[in-house]
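Sequence dictates fold. Below is an illustrative record:

_____
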Amino acid sequence: MSQASENTYVFDVTTANFEDAVLKASLTTPILVDFWASWCEPCKALSPLLDKLAAEYNGAFALAKVDVDAEQQIAAMFGIRSIPTVMLVKDGQVLDGFAGALPEGQLREFLSRHLQPLDAAEDDAPEPAAEIEAETPEGAINRLQQAIAAEPDTASLKLDLAVALMHAGRTDAAAAELDGLPANLSVDPRAVRLRSELELAKAAAGAPSAAELRARVEANPADAEARDQLGVRLLLEGDPAAGMDQWLELLKTQRDWNDGAAKKRLLAAFTTLNDAELVGRYRRKMASLLF
């Protein structure tokens, strides 16, 4: 049964309209995606609150409803593990999200971090910011360490520090900060992206060169380890499409290799890439092989 209401800004999403209604539409309007199921009681509690806020925000975002039982491909592409799960998609990428049925106050707080009703947006638009000098990664690390010393209970600063450490190439330190974050930050898009970046960096550490791996794959197309490492090398060295093609081939021929590593690599790549069109194209390719 459809969950979409008569609200102009609420609609159902299927595999057929996902690209246009969510990925492409998010390039101009943020899309809040609600993953639900008819048997899920918390979903029934959350749905009317989301509908109410979609109407109140008056087009500042659109609310897309995904029935995970009927649309398993979409749920798999987003790695949905529990429902309700809500994700905010902007510019073709997941910007933020949460799991569980939050009360209205927390929903408003979540939305206020990224959005405001259109009328308010027009009235309260900030003045253009003055141009500032770009901060170096080491400068960001120093600034954040000082801020954490002054506010040790502000967990978001520790996530900022983990990201800055990753940008500086200090992967071990970034991983340590990430592991020390509280559970409520686990679905923060920056934490999810950082975790994926660390996984890919770990996979690349000590791997042979792309040329050597390509030679191994050409000599033995069934060499799953070489194909997987080649995918990582290509992705990190600036050819993400060629890298993801390696994992699609693994998904097609050796889906269960290394506990389904090909699917995990693709999901990690989707999280780290900023190209909405490319990510959308490869999400669909992955879904066509999985279902």
